[in-house]
Amino acid sequence: MIADKFSELQKAVGPEITRTDLVPAFQSLLKDTEAEVRAIAANKVKDFCLNLDKQHQESIIMTYILPCVKELVADPNQHVKSALASVIMGLSPILGRHNTIEHLLPLFLAQLKDECPEVRLNIISNLDCVNEVIGIQQLSQSLLPAIVELAEDSKWRVRSAIIEYMPLLAGQLGQEFFDEKLNALCMTWLMDHVFAIREAATLNLRKLVDQFGAEWAENTIIPKVLAMSRDQNYLYRMTCLFCINVLAEACGSDISTRLLLPTVLTMANDKVANVRFNVAKTLQKIAPQLDQSVIQPQVKPVLDKLNIDADMDVKYSASEAIAGIAALG
Predict the structure, then answer these.
(1) Where in this chain does the record put each Phosphatase PP2A regulatory subunit A/Splicing factor 3B subunit 1-like HEAT repeat domain (predicted)?
(2) Residue 191: DSSP 8-state
(3) Which of these, 175, 170, 239, 229, lies nearest to 202 by C-alpha position?
(4) Rounded to two decimals, what is the model's pTM?
(5) Please, which pLDDT band fits residue 1 given cuts at 50, 70 and 90?
(6) Domains, the chain, ranges and CATH?
(7) What DSSP letter does each residue of 29-51 carry, written as one string?
């Protein structure tokens, strides 16, 4: 298909014929009646613009290509929009700071709010291209509010989608920016009224620790997670345990033994049986990460107590934990 070979064609015919003949032809492809053709052409937008004669590059893009791109942002076909979103951020280094802020940012914002997950993901995946051109402050003023808006959307599936993108955003924007602008959001999700969101937020913590390291977790995340063990709502106390399950593995023996274990042991006295049930499961889960010198004097007495709990499920969970830890040797 000719749309797929346009970059090679540009190089073959040179800048003059590109300007007089290929630019109008490329416009036609971007406006083609067939969605498949528009998608292939959209995917070539960055390459086509990069290969333009530097002397006329900006004027050709602004006059002929960008109007077509604006139409494609609202294309009815999601494959076309997704193809465009995968390359559009690459126009920022070509067009520079002023044009990016004036003309491209509104398009990025529209795509960031697109109903198609692939479109949103492709924009978030390439934020570093824009960051290099306009800087982190401008990026935070323009795109961050849209991300926060999606993160607080009334539809839980939209919130869930943004949670999945958080580790990617963290890598794109860096630790300092993440802590300042997005950290609080991640903690808020842990107390969402929808279980699926709390679950996704818990897994998100693990990925963030993988990104930023155990020391960051100790200073930034763990104090907030442990505070949830004292929350009035037992569902959030249980979320605290679920977080400890993933943090122990990510943070290693020292943090697990020194910071996480004392909270779990305290929660064994919780008045809600479901919490005590999960305390036993958590002790079994984190046992391999603990300093083995604490198993007999600290962990075993608590599990023995839970093993004679009035609640049958708690007793079962405790007996399973005792057997599981014993098997570790």
Answers:
(1) 15-96
(2) T
(3) 239
(4) 0.76
(5) low
(6) 1-142 (1.25.10.10), 152-212 (no CATH), 228-329 (1.25.10.10)
(7) HHT-SSHHHHHHHHHTHHHHHHT
